[in-house]
Amino acid sequence: MQSRRIMLIVSYDGTGYSGWALQSSTPNTIEGELNRAIMRLTGEEVNVIGASRTDAGVHAYGNVAVFDTCSRIPGDRFSFALNHELPDDICIVQSKEVSSEFHPRHCDTLKTYEYRVLNTKQSVPTKRLYSYHFSMPLNIDAMNEAAAFLVGEHDFTSFCNTESQALSHVRTIKDVKVTRENDEVVITVTGNGFLYNMVRIIAGTLLQIGRGKGAPEDIKTMLEKKDRAAAGPTAPAMGLFLKEYKFVDGIPGPDGGGKAS
After folding, report:
1. pLDDT tens per residue across span 63-96
2. What is the mean pLDDT of the chain?
3. I need a surface site. Which of 26, 98, 113, 248 has the fewest CB within 10 A?
4. Which domains does the chain have, with CATH numbers?
5. Nearest by Cα to 185 from 221, 209, 154
6. 255 belongs to the catalytic site
7. pTM score of the predicted model
């Protein structure tokens, strides 16, 4: 049978994993689990391609991945079949056949990340794996004022891990907002792409401003300096969620067909 490309929408709890991408030092990655599950299901050795290579401990509501297969399983049935092969902390939310030319990293996209902060005096053990406990009072208005300076096209060198191998640190942020949901503060960031640790550094910086350590307009100086030391700390991984992945031009359907719905 001719090879087909299948797209997966993948949700996962990243707590027990060393990130998305395959690593020689550990088999415990999201990509590795998907490859092995597909092997058990189809008998094929595949290399799943993920749209976003999330770091260790980071969660996702809907990362996007593709793989090629000669299996006769209908595209929309892979979600059901693979969920029987995957551990409980990984779930295929949706699957469908797409164009063989579709590559999730080579498309114009809008990605939305969410960083969750448990803003209480005492920690809540049941939330410790899915939020960052920050006990100091936070000024949400000041955080939103600071966040507004991040919107637009900027060089985000100050908000990037120094080990980044990106050729350019220029990215476009479409929206940043800070909201309070009961005892949690949620920082939501949407952009066309993100650098290594960028969202976590944005979160760590906004938290410092929210606690009164710095003024909102300090963000402008941080951007201008293009120096990692100018921005705030990198917030821990457990509070970060990849919330949504949008393809600006849509997703092309199977070869010879229209766009996948």
Report:
1. 999 999 999 999 999 999 999 999 999 999 999 9
2. 95
3. 248
4. 4-106 (3.30.70.580), 109-243 (3.30.70.660)
5. 209
6. no
7. 0.93
Could you tell me if 58 and 19 are in contact, meaning their C-beta atoms sit under 8 angstroms apart? Answer: yes
Catalytic residue selected from 55, 155, 175, 255: 55
What is residue 208's predicted lDDT score, i.e. its pLDDT?
Answer: 98
Q: Dihedral sign, CA of 138, 142, 143, 144?
A: positive
Q: How many CB atoms lie within 10 A of CB 197?
A: 22
CB atoms within 10 A of CB 46: 18
225, containing H or E segment: helix 218-225
**Contact (Cβ atoms closer than 8 angstroms) between residue 16 and residue 9:** no
pLDDT tens-place string over residues 181-229: 999 999 999 999 999 999 999 999 999 999 999 999 999 999 999 999 9
Give me the pLDDT at residue 211, please: 98
**Helical pair 198-210 and 218-225, crossing angle rounded to 10 deg:** 150
255-260 long-range CB contacts below 8 Å, 24 or more apart?
A: 255/99, 255/100, 255/101, 260/7, 260/96, 260/97, 260/98
Residue 162: both structure tokens together: 């120094």
CB–CB of 78/40 below 8 Å?
A: no
Q: Which tokens is 182 given?
A: 């009961």
> What residue has token string 């693979």?
82
* Contact between 26 and 208 (Cβ < 8 Å): no
